[in-house]
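[step 3/7] fold_predict: job queued, chain A
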Amino acid sequence: MIKVSNMNCGKCNPQQLDIDFSMAFQPIVALAQQTVWGYETLVRGINNEPASFILDQIDFMCHLS
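[step 4/7] structure written:
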């Protein structure tokens, strides 16, 4: 579990960013070459919120857009 309040984006007010979420890296495999081609990140809120909700909250609080 990652607490966004532990991160520092330079524009954030840590008191406003109390979002708990889990993150996992899943390999993307090139089957023909039998190699790992890359990774995708899977993000989910601890209360089953979708990744879009978590990222929207971070974007809104940090004014990144």
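[step 5/7] annotate
The mean pLDDT is 76.
The longest helix spans residues 51-62.
exit 0
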